[in-house]
Design brief:
The protein is mostly helical. The protein folds into four domains: 60 residues, Orthogonal Bundle (434 Repressor (Amino-terminal Domain)), CATH 1.10.260.40; 107 residues, no CATH class; 112 residues, no CATH class; 75 residues, no CATH class. It has 21 helices and two strands. Strands 1-2 form a two-stranded antiparallel ribbon. Helix 14 packs antiparallel against helix 15, helix 16 packs across helix 17 and helix 17 packs parallel to helix 20. The model has no long low-confidence stretch (mean pLDDT 93).
Length: 392
């Protein structure tokens, strides 16, 4: 198995290619020389904020720094190429219109695979399913429900592109989702598309722009004056996206504001719900609050908040959300120098959501630091490192 360059190693290589010393780069990034040195040598993780500032200073994309997440990218490359072709042919579906029952079954399976973080399986099905749903919508003319189904499928496709580290494809998919949503005359479909649009800015490290998109979408959606569980779920999910963007931007007031609004909305739901590929409720809001504490560099508070949740996990959350919770616990544990706790949290993340954990930038970064910090002989750590391609 070929060892893949880490974000820290990529930062070092790109810095040297540009003839830039560590002192100059750390000044442009706004971090200390010691911190940058530890990131490049693997003693500290390259957080999303660090990757974003390094990408800006080095004039590259965040994807270039994060690198290829797969140890064996051949199958993923083929699947991405097929998905890219289907997205490009968005007005020229080559598939026939399926029966209503077959399409409904396909849509249900796509949502299930996405919620279960089965990204490879989802990627295999999306090209055909997108063509079938689009053909159905075109045959139905202006049927809002049919176009809403197309928009939801593009939401699934966005998740695949995002997780597979394909920002250009994610951008194209969002534009297709907005195209389909505009044909529904449904504010909910447009709000769900805005959630993903903000996500493309989040992936690029443009947190301020993403936050502006979220706040505009919230204002427009509130003006629609909707009601019921679907409305609350989508509006709440927009606020949770705002929590992530504001916390990475280190805007404490905006983070607190979005979090308070999310908590208020979650009180209106009996449990966490999944609507239009968006999960929202009290449990997910708590997980986002913990993640915000990590992003705002308050790991001790995050560890304290996580303790009761580790014993009694909120019900109704899918593998993707639970897996991300364990990754955030691992980040917080590493920051407070609880290496055993960080390793244990990563093991749980691999158990709950293996595909996501294997390719998620922050699980890989925590694992990389643990591996470097004289724990190479630990069998479980070695096994996780091999799965992610961090070692041969």
């Amino acid at each position: 198995m070929e060892k893949k360059p880490t974000p820290g190693e990529n930062i070092a290589v790109l810095r040297k290619v540009r003839g830039m010393g560590q002192a100059k780069l750390c000044r442009e990034m706004g971090i200390t020389l010691s911190y940058l040195s530890k990131i490049e040598t693997g003693l500290r993780p390259a957080t999303p904020t660090v990757v974003a500032s390094a990408a800006k200073a080095l004039h590259v994309t965040t994807a270039r720094i994060n690198g290829e997440p797969f140890s064996d990218p051949s199958e993923q490359a083929d699947l991405i190429q097929e998905l890219r072709g289907a997205v490009r042919r968005h007005t020229l579906p080559s598939e026939d219109t399926p029966s209503r029952e077959d399409l409904a079954a396909g849509l249900e399976e796509a949502a299930r695979l996405r919620a279960g973080t089965k990204y490879l399986e989802l990627a295999r099905k999306l090209p055909t399913l997108l063509g079938q749903a689009t053909a159905t919508a075109m045959d139905a003319g202006g049927d809002a429900v049919a176009w809403g189904q197309v928009a939801d499928l593009y939401g699934c496709a966005y998740t695949v592109a995002h997780r597979f580290g394909q920002p250009d494809l994610a951008d194209m998919i969002v534009s297709r989702q907005q195209w389909a949503a505009s044909r529904t005359w449904n504010p909910t479909a447009e709000a769900a598309a805005a959630w993903n649009e903000a996500g493309t800015h989040q992936s690029a490290g443009a947190y301020g722009d993403g936050l502006a998109i979220v706040e505009r979408a919230i204002s427009q959606y509130e003006n629609a004056r909707g009601e019921g569980p679907e409305y609350v779920t989508v509006l709440g999910a927009l606020h949770l996206r705002g929590v992530v963007l504001a916390s990475r931007q280190k805007e404490e007031t905006a983070t607190r504001s979005h979090l308070l609004r999310a908590k208020g909305l979650s009180a209106q739901l009996p449990r966490d719900l999944l609507q239009h590929n968006l999960t929202f409720g009290a449990g997910n809001t708590a997980l986002y609050e913990l993640a915000a504490l990590v992003e705002m560099e308050q790991p001790h508070k995050a560890v304290e908040m996580a303790a009761p949740m580790l014993k009694n996990m909120p019900v109704g959350l899918g593998p993707g959300r639970i897996g991300r919770f364990y990754i955030d616990v691992a980040r917080a544990s590493l920051a407070v120098k609880d290496l055993a706790g960080a390793e244990a949290a990563l093991r749980r993340a691999f158990e709950v959501s293996p595909q996501m954990t294997e390719i998620h930038p922050m699980s890989r970064e925590v694992l990389r630091v643990l591996f470097v910090m004289h724990q190479r002989t630990r069998p479980s750590l070695m096994a996780m490192a091999k799965r992610t391609g961090l070692t041969k």
